[in-house]
Amino acid sequence: MKKINTRFGEVEYDPANLLHFPAGLIGFPVLHDFIVMPNKKDGPLFWIQSVDDPAIAFVLTDPSNFFLDYLVAPDNSEKTMLHMDKDDECFVLSVVTVPQDQKITINLAAPILFSPKSNRAIQVILEDGKYTSKTALPGT
Q1: Tens digits of per-residue pLDDT, 118-130?
Q2: CA 117 from chain center: how many Å?
Q3: 12-27, pLDDT tens digit by residue?
């Protein structure tokens, strides 16, 4: 087990259970490893905490909790990056932003594809222009 000091206090983690982003995240290309923080409250939002820079953490959610028609699937090159086999499960997640004015938004234009089998994730940019990076979260 290892420990880091974060906004959540001292966090102990098992390096074997890290969520690995081989290409980093958009705007954060050097952040590769994250801890999925346990939820303290019931709900659809959760935190991932960077191990590479303990000052950085992101709120994520499954966008289909809010947008039932939001469907994204990895293509073959993305499956390769995620070390996925043909029938492996892939989850789609989105970054949530909670600004000072509490007008919460979700980034539907750049979802995160996550393979639980490999514990790898990649952030992709959807180029169809159908979604925005600051979509208002319903009910906020």
Answers
A1: 999 999 999 988 9
A2: 16
A3: 999 999 999 999 999 9
Residues 36-78 pLDDT 10s = 998 778 889 999 999 999 999 999 999 999 999 999 999 999 9
Domains of the chain: 2-136 (2.30.290.10)
- Please state, in angstroms and rounded to a whole number, the distance separating the CA atoms of residues 57 and 51: 9
* Calpha distance 129→112 (Å, rounded): 17
Query: In whole angstroms, how large is the CA radius of gyration of the chain?
Result: 15
In angstroms, the CA 69 to CA 57 distance is 28
Q: Return d(Cα 84, Cα 10) in angstroms, integer.
A: 33
